[in-house]
Amino acid sequence: MSRIEKALERAAQKRAAEGATPQVPSPPAMTPAATASSAVLSDYAAFEQVPHPAVANPCLVTATDPNSPISEQYRKLKSLLIKMTRSEQSRNSLLVTSTVGGEGKTITALNLAITLAQEYDHTVLLIEADLRRPTIMNYLGLHASVGLADCVLDGVDVGEALVKTGIGKLSVLPAGRAVKDPVEVFSSARMAKLLQEVKTRYSDRFVILDSTPLLPFAEGQILAHLVDSVIFVARQEYTPFDKLKDALASLKSANLLGVVCNDIDGGITGTGYYGYYGYYKYPRKSA
Amino acid sequence: MDNPLSQVKKYLFLVYKKRFIFLFSSLLVMSVIISGSFFMTKKYEASSTVFIERNMIDSLLRGITITPSMDDRIRVLRHYMLSRDLISRTLRKLDADLTAPTPEQFEGLIRKYQRATNINMRGQELFIVSLRDEDPVFARDFINALVGTYVEENIASKREEAFGAGRFISEQLTFFKQRLDEAQDRVIQFRRDREIYSTVSEAALLENIKRAEEGLEQIKMQKNEMLATIATIRRQLDMMAEFSAQNTSNPFGFAATGSGGNALVAQLESRRQEMLQVYNERHPEIVRLDARIEAILEAEKDNPVELAVAPVVEFNPLEDPIYVDLKMRLNARETEFQAIEARERELQAMIQENQAKLREFPEEKKLLADLERERNSYLKLYEQLLERQGVTEVSKQMEVADKTTTFRIVDPAVLPRAPVSIDRFKVMLLGVFVGFGAGLGLVILLEMIDGRFKDIDSLRQLGIPILAEIPTIPDPVKQARMKKFNIARYACAGCGFLVIGMFLAHDALGLGLIDRFIIDSNLDQVVAKVVRFIN
């Protein structure tokens, strides 16, 4: 059993002892660490204080079914990323984008973040940089009143806006309040400063930004030049191929690590990774 | 990986992916074809079988007679039977032209029946003419009229052809006879003009010249011999004349011998013996010598001294038998010489004449050869025509007696009872296949026009690294909803195929329930009206 699971178990026992019902705290309430100094943040045990949320969305497969072959694919992606970024410690900010909407950017960013957060060595900050249609909090079943927009536009402290998810060492910086012109937010110097700050605060932190699609909106392009590397998501049988090529071409000046192909069909016979189900079911049963 | 198996797998996967499009588009096409098959116009087929009969007499008289171009007719039978002329006459015979008042409509009618009439040849002896039409009575009448007209026309034209051939050959025979006679006359006239009555060859002329030259050689030798003889005789005569001039009493020196009458007798005897070697005793010269010897002997007996002393006799050459004889021989030789010379001249003239002929021979021969060739060619043609006239006569008689190849209508067209034009079951089966084909085609078409990202390899080809291939994340709620929806769609498709299967079974069993329903509810008329309106 992993340390996270043990911590979660202890938290559950504590809640049972207190007789209190587990509640997902509102950001200010649930983030005593955010209001506390960074010394508190450096204590990883603080994460263990946050109960594991009841993630119900089946798309967050790394949280709901970590032994599934799909989770294994995300773990493979995580390993690849760690390998690619290990050489330079400062290259820890990552943008997840795609051609058009609906290709699974947020799902990919979330699953990748969860996988990384489950890792013993890493803390992960997932920034909801899609101010037009923020969905990360909905996927996690969390709520927050302040977020990225507030930090950039109103000067709210990032620490106040951070939401600890209870999934490993994963924190989320929500989108925050609705803004009229998201491009202005991302093109501002404050945004660059904020990003630099969250990047450099902890050396072992991975900062993942979930942005808008590249072709319809400009934010993705702006963010691609603010982060260290870019992951591009393409969905099979969905993304128009010519547009996909245009989007990839627009990332020429950015550090594109590669493409994550989403929603890959197993074919008629369902061969591929599913053939190894037996392997994945075994640990689940034994657990 | 473009092997056939991978292609099949690719299409199968494609069909599976878009299985509902495939199923419902197939069903739609099948439904249209199958329901349409119930409203297709019924057609009836009338057919007639015609046997091309070749009688035994035809085989027997092969070579003697010529059947007028039957094989050619069979070869073009299809084209002739479907010719515009024959079809239009057949239609007019059946008053079908009344239904098409304008020439354009009638033309359309002709084209329609040209297309609808089917001619099926079975070997060289049998052909079946059939027509599919909505009106069974018309189909029967049309086929019978068409076949009847064709057969009648063939027999009539065959006879006409035979008569025509006979007539033509007779005319040609007369013409060529006249030409042959003219050519023959020209040859005769030429030979008469050039005095070549018989065939004179170049070799014969050369042989004549050679023989004449040989004759001339012989004559030359004879002439030389003759000239030598004549010269000898002349010399003897001159000697005798000279001797007699010296000794007039005894030209031959009898007296000089000094032996008197005996010596003369001996000389005469010697002469007599010499002549007896050539002539017999009755020769006048020998007789005269005998008389002379006898006279000398008698004179010697009567007066031996006198004779011995004074035998003075006057010498007369004409009385000397030897001289006379020589003279006569000379004359004879000279006469012969003249005759030989005349012969020589004659031979030389003949040689010259032959040589002249030989010089003119090629030109003459050419002219004659041309004339003869012309005559021979006419002769040959004439002979051939004469021979053909006989054949034509027999052929004509055969045609008149209808003994040659004939068309026998084995099976005339009868009124068709059951419609044959559409085998509805086959049309339905065809509809099923066409439906599946259309479904597959639609799926492939959609795939072709689909510009979405499908293949990871296409991304790799762009040189972009693939970080992960995330399979479809199952969503139980969505899956359950989709499952229900799919079950409903499968059920719909299944029902559709069941209905199509029922239609097929209905037709295979020949139930006719749907047909009765269509007729009872006047659906066919409604559909016909709709089709007419669309047209």
UniProtKB/TrEMBL annotation, chain A:
Region (Disordered): 9-32
Signal peptide: none
EC number assigned by the record: 2.7.10.2
Entry superkingdom: Bacteria
Keywords, comma-separated and alphabetical: ATP-binding, Kinase, Nucleotide-binding, Transferase, Tyrosine-protein kinase
SUPFAM superfamilies: P-loop containing nucleoside triphosphate hydrolases (SSF52540)
Catalytic activity from the UniProt record: L-tyrosyl-[protein] + ATP = O-phospho-L-tyrosyl-[protein] + ADP + H(+)
Pfam families documented for this protein: AAA_31
AAA domain: residues covered: 98-241
InterPro entries assigned to the protein according to its UniProt record, in alphabetical order: AAA_dom, Bact_polysacc_biosynth/exp, P-loop_NTPase, Wzc-like_C
Catalytic EC class: transferase
UniProt xrefs under PANTHER family: FERRIC ENTEROBACTIN TRANSPORT PROTEIN FEPE, TYROSINE-PROTEIN KINASE
Family statement: Belongs to the CpsD/CapB family.
NCBIfam families reported in the protein's UniProt record: eps_fam, pepcterm_TyrKin
Annotated protein name in UniProt: non-specific protein-tyrosine kinase
Automatic annotation (TrEMBL), chain B:
Top-level taxonomic group: Bacteria
Keyword Transmembrane helix attached: yes
TM region positions: 20-40, 427-446, 487-505
Residue span(s) of domain Tyrosine-protein kinase G-rich: 364-447
Any Pfam family: GNVR
Keyword Membrane carried by entry: yes
Coiled-coil regions listed: 173-236, 340-388
Keywords (A to Z) from UniProt: Coiled coil, Membrane, Transmembrane, Transmembrane helix
Signal peptide coordinates: none
Protein name: Chain length-determining protein
Species name: Geoalkalibacter halelectricus
